[in-house]
Write a structure and sequence with these properties.
The chain is α+β, with helices and mostly antiparallel strands and 516 residues long. The chain has three domains: 17-147 and 181-226 and 233-272, no CATH class; 304-419, Protein Transport Mog1p, Chain A; 437-495, no CATH class. It contains 16 helices and 20 strands. Strands 10, 11, 12, 13, 14, 15, 16 and 20 form an eight-stranded antiparallel beta sheet that branches. The longest helix has 25 residues, at 150-174. The chain is globular. The two termini are 43 Å apart.
Length: 516
């Protein structure tokens, strides 16, 4: 009976799908999207991507370079006539992805990490492979089926997971993620690699660049592990959900290089010209992570996270994490209550959730902290919350969720809240952000003197993006390197022409109290 019902459910899920032959692989595939549908979907989702990743990068020379490389690869694909849109995102996060309709995105972080044009082309070719392989369309089809057949999810949960499984399946159906954030299968990742190597070779690039960039991702994973104290999984980077096997990619790339008819190129000089003057790291307009400090020159404030916390910035909030599992979220909000203390009692994190409130002042502004009780998953947890008046009925707010709150941890988190300071225009101007400056090394020059810093973390980043040994490597005389330096006048030259994210609700913390 279960087998019959399962067959009927799968058949129902395929209603409305069209069987098409994949132009890149020759395989027959089912999809709910026509080519026009894909273009329309990509156009619809494009603004959401820009909002999530801090908008497109405004450095015209660098953005045009990404477009040029992308179009060169499209021209040798199986879809040379299809419209592709290549966007350089203003984000330091190392990431790349594609939407249906030929929308391909790479971040500033990708450009900074790459060694040359061939490595950048390898990343873009991989994403083009997801489009020509119709992986983006298939992924959306799966998402559509999941969202459009909520009862299917309930029935499946009931069959295989009992009543609890049915409830979980229903919740998943209601909270289905947008198609562009869903993960590819391992097979799709491998196929995109194979297609990407095909396009790299046809365009005259060294196909081994795809493997060498994956090696750089391994170095990035090692550096992050050293900073956070966590173990390094070298393949859990931008391909975390479905890791790619470096050895497999390297073998395929080497075989392609041996079969290449003409010369293969890396184009390092063109790449260095494109990134010279590009902003590096966080954009001051979105705030800067400086160790465990966060500074927002545009909005005029700074604060220090507790010792042992690692910060991650996004356009809407700052997420902090510690090795013991504690999470900090900082963001801003409007309040409708008469003062900050009543805001914690009646409006946030939830009416009745805050059991104790301590009014006070921070940097001359009205503030309050409180101890709330919320539910994280199936566990009731205490949450330390704090809010600072930002004028015009706005507040800056903190929340700390930890496996256990005790007197010591509350004191540590309270000190972090009280470290909040407002910046004057002159103070804000001291934080112009950073940029990449290309320099040809002369005899006797070292990274420390070239960058004018002894900051171990920043020097390690410079070694990473230049392919130098992380344990003290130095460039050779005559080598052209990417230096990380303060942005000139606050504006880079090229611009001239947190596992759980969100507020208490988004973290999955449900208020527990009389008004909850």
């Amino acid at each position: 009976m279960k087998r019959i019902l399962l067959s009927l459910l799968i058949s129902a899920a395929l209603v409305g799908c069209t069987q098409v032959r994949n132009p890149a692989t020759g395989e027959l595939q089912y999809t709910t999207l026509s080519q026009e549908d894909e273009l329309r979907l990509g156009l619809q989702e494009h603004p959401k991507v820009l909002a999530e990743f801090g908008d497109a990068y405004e450095g015209q020379r660098t953005a045009a370079y990404v477009q040029e490389v992308g179009q060169r690869l499209v021209a040798v694909s199986e879809l040379p006539e299809q419209q592709f849109t290549f966007t350089l995102l203003n984000s330091p996060v190392v990431n790349a992805f594609a939407l249906p309709g030929g929308y391909v995105y790479v971040t500033r972080g990708i450009l900074a990490l790459a060694a040359d044009e061939a490595e950048l082309a390898g990343v873009i070719a991989h994403e083009i492979g997801h489009v020509t392989g119709r992986h983006t369309a298939q992924r959306h089809t799966q998402s559509t089926v999941a969202q459009g057949t909520g009862m299917l999810g309930v029935l499946m949960g009931g069959l295989f997971g009992g009543e609890a499984g049915a409830r979980a399946a229903a919740q998943l159906a209601q909270a289905a993620a947008p198609a562009w954030v869903m993960s590819y299968s391992r097979e799709q990742e491998f196929e995109a690699d194979e297609l990407g190597i095909r396009y790299l070779t046809r365009a005259g690039y060294d196909p081994r660049a795809m493997a060498s960039f994956l090696g750089r991702l391994q170095g990035q994973a090692q550096l992050e592990a050293a900073r956070t104290g966590r173990s390094a999984d070298p393949e859990q980077t931008i391909y975390a959900s479905h890791p790619r096997t470096l050895d497999r990619v390297a073998r395929a790339a080497q075989a392609a290089a041996e079969r290449a008819d003409g010369p293969i190129r890396r184009n390092r000089d063109a790449y260095l010209l494109a990134v010279d003057g590009m902003r590096y790291g966080d954009d001051p307009a979105e705030g800067l992570v400086l160790g465990r400090s966060f500074v927002h020159p545009g909005l005029g404030f700074r604060f220090d996270a507790p010792p042992g916390f690692t910060l991650a910035n996004s356009p809407t909030q700052v997420i902090g994490r510690s090795a013991d599992g504690a999470v900090m979220v900082f963001d801003g909000a409007q309040r409708s209550t008469p003062d900050v203390a009543s805001y914690l009692q009646r409006e946030w994190p939830g009416q009745g959730a805050t059991r104790a409130v301590w009014p006070g002042q921070i940097d001359g502004h009205a503030a309050a902290t409180g101890l709330a009780v919320g539910r994280v998953g199936n566990q009731v947890r205490q949450v330390l919350v704090g809010a600072i008046d930002a004028a015009d009925a706005k507040v800056w707010r903190f929340q700390f969720v930890a496996p256990q709150l005790d007197q010591r941890s509350v004191g540590t988190y309270q000190a972090a809240i009280e470290s909040f300071r407002f910046l004057s225009p002159a103070e804000a101007a001291r934080y112009p952000g950073q940029m990449i400056r290309v320099h040809e090394v002369r005899p006797g020059e070292r990274l420390e003197t070239l960058m004018g810093t002894s900051d171990a973390d920043l020097l390690a980043e410079a070694r990473l993006i230049n392919g130098l040994p992380l344990d003290g490597g130095q460039p050779e005389p005559g080598q052209r390197v990417k230096l990380i330096v303060p942005a000139t006048g606050g504006t880079p030259v090229a611009e001239a022409g947190p596992e759980a994210e969100g507020s208490v609700d988004q973290l999955g913390v449900e208020p527990v109290g009389p008004g909850a």
